[in-house]
Amino acid sequence: MAASQTSPALPATLRLWAARARMDAMFVVRSPRIAVTWLVTDLMVAVVGVAVVALVAARFGGIGTWSGYHVLFLLAYSALCGGVVDVLFSFNVSMISRRIGRGQLDHALLQPHPMWRVLLTEGFSPCSSAAGLVSALVLMAWAGPGVDVPVGWMLVNLAASVTVGLSYQFIWGSIAFWAPMGAEEVNSRTGSVIWLRAYPLDAAGRGLRVLLLTALPTGLLAWFPARALLGLSSPWTLWATPAAAGVFAALAALVFRKGLRHYARTGSRRYSDRGHRR
Amino acid sequence: MSTLNPLRYRAFASMALRGPLQENPFFVLQYGFAIVETLLLLALWRAAYGGHRVVGGLTLPQVLTYTLMAHVLSAQLRPDTEFAGDMWEGRVAVRFLRPVSVFGQYVAETLGRWLFRVVLFAAPVLALATVLGVDPRPRGSVPAFVVSLGCSIVLGFAVDLCIAALMIWFEHDYWSVQMLSNAVVAFASGFLVPLALLPFGVGRVLEWLPFASMVSAPLRIYVGAGGDPWPLVARQAAWAVVAWPVAAGLWRMLRQRMVLYGG
Fold first, then answer.
1. Cβ–Cβ under 8 Å, residues A109 and A184
2. Mean per-residue pLDDT for A222-239?
3. Residue B208 pLDDT
4. Quick one: closest CA in A to B52, which residue?
5. ∠ CA B89-B72-A187 to the nearest 5 degrees?
């Protein structure tokens, strides 16, 4: 155990990812009916998630100042953001309040790895949760020829968007440390806003835009970085989402650590194995 | 008293109404986020319409009213009992021990919870409507809308029972069935996008499905779109008459396969 804790971070993380990938592949092979059901469901949910804006854009020939290809890129970026979270942070890592509220954080604390590595790797499911990511890549391939986007900046902003979304969920989810029963499903509520990330916010009122770029950072998950990448806003905005990600991540780490210290004193009497996709 | 006597179920409605008050304050968050979603959709339509006056037979004021009322009446247009969730958690076992209809209990509790949504969401949104630049007043026949809403509620509960029964068929894969049904119903019913505004003739096909009779039909009558409302109401009534025997038959057929884990 001590050797694992002091082993170099990257190889240990990669080994855990590989192990998770193998387990996920084994699940798909062992339970093909369930796996196919999940994949089809995730695919249809991902499609419906972007269909609203896509169909409106198709009917109206764009939305406001967004042309058809711009809207397609926005939807692809939005779907990529969700797809990456699904593949890397499933098994309720992105719904951390459930793990905390159900006393399942002990699973992570018992492992001979630092908490950050456990949370980074435990949700990795590249087979059973790939439907959203695959559909996002198809959308991006469709949108790609019609837009001119710097790929490097796109990857940076995408990583930033994922960080913002995850941090937002962790900030709210940490409430479950103090109210495990009441806040167990708080991430289900807060996550509902993330569904709205595919909507262009140009016509939203100033107050709503400010809200959706700060306290409820839905705008940072797709709309704001997509505008920056498409050149629809000033060049400095390419830095804005990564900077916001730094702020959100720091805040999430602060709140989560505070909650974890509280949890170390109180523990949890609500252990339930429910939630690991039983 | 007969199990069909609604008075037998008022205690369930009362308990459901008081339940959230005894739990935790976070349930209020969902109403806040629902308001945000409503505002976003209104903004989307304003941006999309731009300089267009009429699209698909709908003006921008009609679409804004449609969107606002879809969210105000969301609980009634898409009834969501806790039947499927209770099956997943095994709590439904207790329901069978009571001398009343199992699904009747869920319907009564859903009706009780509606009052929360009216107070915490519907009323504030309607009060803010004019500030948001939306006219919430009906433009169509009010009697037809009331009848249509009633048919929609009846049909919605039948669809909910079908979905709960399908969960058994899918061997209790609750999340998949729930997510899929929510997504399909939200899209195919016209809740998110009025069916008349869907391109490629998709809306004209979806209008014949029962989901459109749940949401699109009453809202079209409300905003005065689509001409004579009574053929729409007749279609809704026909779906309601068909849906309940199908739902009851599915439930009778599948409940013997129910396996409960937990409770």
1. no
2. 95
3. 93
4. A60
5. 40
